[in-house]
Design the sequence.
C-alpha cells in the first residue's frame, strides 16, 4: 500500500463535526460586520515580500522569521524572494486602498474580510502556520471615537459567540513625534541590562527596541521595570489616549491598561489593544488584537491618512468557545427522502420540492430495502423521513418517536416538519 500523505505541519482540517461551531463564530463576525456597516474587501493571498517588509517592518517576527515564501513550479530563488503568502491582511488592504485611489471615496472607509493567513512559525497549541482571521479596518478616521467603537465591536463579538469573560488590554505607543524619545529610553534601559536579554532581543535592540518588550522570553522583572510608552507621549497622543479611555468608560466597557503591550508589527501608532480570555496572559493566547496605523497609508505611497483596525483569530476563538463548552445553535432539522419503490425520479422530485421550501434534505439514491434506507437516514441524523411510494404517494415518519403519517402531500410535509 502506498504511504499515506498527511496534512502539512501547523495546519488543520475542518471536519464536518466541527463545522457548526466554526460557522457560528464566522456567522457572528459577518453579522456584526453588517450591523457595524463594514463593506467586504478581498485581496490576494500572496503579495510582494516588499509590501510586508515595508508595512509590517523588516524586524517584525512575521517578516524576519515567519515569511511563507512562494514561487512557481520551477520557482527560482529570485521568485521566492519576491512573493510570500500573507501573514496578515492589513498591509494588502492598505495596498489596495492606495492602488485604487480609494481615498477619493467618501470616507471614512470601513472594510472587512475573513480569510486564511500564513506564518511559517513553529506550530504549537493555538499557533498554526495557516490560520483564519476576521479583520476590520477603518481608513480615514482619526478617532478617538472609532478607536473605542472597535474595542466595543470586538467585545460584543466575543460576548455573542459565548465568551463573556474576554477582556481588552489597551495601551498607547505614541506616534512619529514622541516615539523617538521612547525608543531612546528603551535602548538605554535595555542596554544597561543587555546580559539578561535573549540573543534575539540583543540583536534587535538598536534597530527596534519595542520588539524587545514583545519578546516572549523577556525576563518579567526586567519587563516590569522598563520605561512605559505612556510616560513619553506627546500632548496630542496623550489627549487622544485619554479620550479613547474616557469613551470606553462612558460605554461602561471593562478594559485594562497594559503598559507592556506594544504589538508585534511596526505599523502601529497610538492606540493598541489585544483581547484575552480571563486568566490567560501569554502573547500566544491573544484572541485578537489591533490598533491604529496612522502612518501606513503614506508609507505605502498614499496620501497621509489615519487608519485603525483589528484582527480576530477565528481558530483561537473556536478553541475557546469549545473549551468553554458553548454549544453552537442547532441547525435546521434534517429530512431524509427514502423510497418504498424503485422510483428514483419520484424521490428526487420530492426532494427538490422540499428543498425549494428551504428544508435540508438528503435523498437516498439506492434501491436497498426500505428498512435499510431508514436505518441509514437515522444514522445520518435525520429528524424526519419522507417515504416515497408508487405514484409519489408520501408518508412522513418522525424518526424520534417512530410515529408515521400516511397519505400526506408535499405541502403537508412542509407544514409539519
Ligand atoms: P496580530 O496580533 O498579528 O494582528 O494577529 C491577530 C490575531 O490573529 C491574534 O490575536 C491571534 O488571535 C491570531 N493569530 C495570529 N497568529 C496566529 C497563528 N500563528 N495561529 C493562530 N492564530 C493566530 C494582525 O494580524 C493585525 N493585522 C491586526 C490589525 C488589523 N491591526 C490593525 N488592523
Sequence:
Amino acid at each position: 500500500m502506498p504511504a499515506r500523505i498527511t496534512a502539512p505541519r501547523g495546519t488543520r482540517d475542518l471536519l464536518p463535526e466541527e463545522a457548526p461551531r466554526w460557522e457560528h463564530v464566522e456567522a457572528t463576525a459577518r453579522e456584526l460586520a453588517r450591523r457595524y456597516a463594514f463593506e467586504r474587501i478581498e485581496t490576494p493571498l500572496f503579495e510582494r515580500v516588499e509590501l510586508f517588509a515595508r508595512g509590517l517592518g523588516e524586524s517584525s517576527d512575521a517578516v524576519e522569521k515567519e515569511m511563507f515564501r512562494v514561487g512557481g513550479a520551477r520557482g527560482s530563488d529570485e521568485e521566492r524572494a519576491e512573493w510570500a503568502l500573507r501573514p496578515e491582511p492589513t498591509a494588502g488592504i492598505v495596498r489596495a486602498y492606495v492602488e485604487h485611489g480609494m481615498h477619493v471615496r467618501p470616507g471614512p472607509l470601513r472594510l472587512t474580510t475573513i480569510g486564511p493567513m500564513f506564518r511559517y512559525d513553529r506550530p504549537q497549541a493555538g499557533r498554526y502556520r495557516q490560520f483564519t482571521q476576521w479583520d476590520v479596518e477603518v481608513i480615514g478616521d482619526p478617532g478617538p471615537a472609532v478607536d473605542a467603537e472597535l474595542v466595543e465591536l470586538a467585545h460584543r463579538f466575543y460576548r455573542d459567540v459565548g465568551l463573556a469573560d474576554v477582556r481588552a488590554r489597551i495601551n498607547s505607543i505614541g506616534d512619529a513625534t514622541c516615539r523617538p524619545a521612547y525608543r531612546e529610553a528603551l535602548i538605554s534601559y535595555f542596554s544597561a541590562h543587555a546580559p539578561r536579554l535573549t540573543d534575539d532581543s540583543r540583536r534587535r535592540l538598536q534597530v527596534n527596541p519595542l520588539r524587545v518588550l514583545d519578546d516572549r522570553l523577556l525576563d518579567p522583572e526586567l519587563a516590569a521595570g522598563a520605561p512605559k510608552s505612556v510616560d513619553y507621549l506627546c500632548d496630542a497622543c496623550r489627549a487622544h489616549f485619554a479620550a479613547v479611555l474616557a469613551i470606553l468608560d462612558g460605554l461602561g466597557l471593562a478594559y485594562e491598561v497594559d503598559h507592556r503591550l506594544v504589538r508585534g508589527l511596526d505599523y502601529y501608532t497610538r492606540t493598541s489593544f489585544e483581547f484575552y480570555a480571563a486568566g490567560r496572559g501569554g502573547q500566544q493566547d491573544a484572541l485578537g488584537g489591533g490598533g491604529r496605523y496612522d502612518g501606513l497609508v503614506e508609507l505605502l505611497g498614499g496620501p497621509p491618512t489615519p487608519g485603525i483596525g483589528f484582527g480576530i483569530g477565528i481558530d483561537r476563538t473556536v478553541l475557546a468557545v469549545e473549551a468553554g463548552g458553548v454549544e453552537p445553535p442547532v441547525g435546521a432539522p434534517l429530512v431524509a427522502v427514502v423510497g418504498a419503490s424503485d422510483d428514483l425520479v419520484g424521490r428526487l422530485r420530492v426532494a427538490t420540492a422540499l428543498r425549494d421550501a428551504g428544508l435540508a434534505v438528503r435523498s437516498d439514491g439506492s434501491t436497498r430495502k426500505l428498512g435499510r434506507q431508514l436505518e441509514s437516514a437515522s444514522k445520518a441524523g435525520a429528524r424526519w423521513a419522507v417515504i416515497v411510494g408508487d405514484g409519489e404517494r408520501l408518508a412522513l415518519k418522525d424518526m424520534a418517536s417512530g410515529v408515521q403519517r400516511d397519505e400526506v402531500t408535499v405541502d403537508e410535509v412542509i407544514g409539519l416538519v
About this structure: The pocket of histidyl-adenosine monophosphate is lined by residues 88, 90, 119, 121, 126-128, 131, 133, 135, 137, 264, 286-291, 293, 309-311, 313, 315-316 (CB under 6 Å). The two ends are 47 Å apart (CA to CA).
